Amino acid sequence: MPQNTNALDELKKHTTIVADTSDFNQIDKYKPQDATTNPSLILKASKIEDYSHLIDEAITFAKKSNGGDLITNILNRIFVNFAKEILKIIPGRVSIEVDARASFDTNKSLEIARHFIDLFKKEKISKDRILIKLASTYECINACEVLEKEGIHCNMTLLFSIEQAAMAAEKKATLISPFVGRILDWYKKEKNISSFKPTEDPGVISVKNIYNYYKKFDYSTSIMGASFRNIDEILELAGCDFLTIAPNLLNELENLKKPIEKKLDKKDFKNLDIKKLNLNENTFRFLLNENAMATEKLAEGIRNFSKDLVLLEELIKQKL
Predict the structure, then answer these.
(1) In which region does residue 68 sit, left (phi positive, over 0), alpha (psi from -120 to 50) or beta (all else)?
(2) Catalytic: which of 133, 171, 215, 297?
(3) Which of 34, 219, 244 is nearest to 131 (CA)?
(4) What pLDDT shows up at residue 2?
(5) Would you say residue 107 has pLDDT above 60?
(6) pLDDT tens-digit profile of 52-86?
(7) Which residue, 21, 52, 140, 255, is most buried by CB atoms nearer than 10 A?
(8) 197 is catalytic
(9) CATH assignment of 7-319, among 3.40.50.1950, 3.20.20.70, 3.90.1150.10, 3.40.630.30
(10) How remote is the C-alpha of 22 from its chain's centroid?
């Protein structure tokens, strides 16, 4: 390993790095290919004074718009404004999240996603630079299928199980985001232990199993490990298609002088003893229900994103 390189530089040789933040300064610092946003990240960034103009512009824009709920129009415009600024920094794509409160409503999710794409089109931003984030519920996976047929690319988020991953791939999702750290959180609490060895980390194992499943059955859907709790999880997934990493962990990787071994690699997956899941609505819902971790973390994630959306709406009302 050359003396002037670090673990982050080494990791970039094996995996496309995505910044898990809405803070433009952090994105610019680490030079990722892509970036992801969500209501929690935008709520956090919206409290930074340097970004207040993006909220002010959204309010002005929405007041001039015809039709629709004013608060909803402002909220959507805030998301678009943050995404626009991020796209000025990165060469690739930005993920923008559909309202979590529509997670069990296929038609509403479609309406919001198409509205986002229309807003970006008016800003002369190609839909190819946008990933629409949808919770990995049955309803949103169906919305993903429709959107992908329309050329709108989707990132299935809040994903915790092979069933969610398998159905998303069958519906031709562009990308999935398995939440590594949140899976770890659940098992630490469930087993009442403080840590796992990196190779035994349940979140890491989950992503490796999805990776093997996708390669075995030749799915084109990309995998982006997300929601990391430590750099050991990240290093165990070197070679994954994408990894979205928060600034504090990017900083740790940048300051680590260590050669990186590619842990996920293309090989003869055809010989792996993996059975293909035959999923319809009934089997998907049943298998997800049987997985207590995935069921609980999916519900918790939707609740938390919904809560942060309400807080964002309160912030908007104060400004109004």
Answers:
(1) left
(2) 133
(3) 34
(4) 59
(5) yes
(6) 899 999 999 999 887 788 999 999 999 999 999 99
(7) 140
(8) no
(9) 3.20.20.70
(10) 13
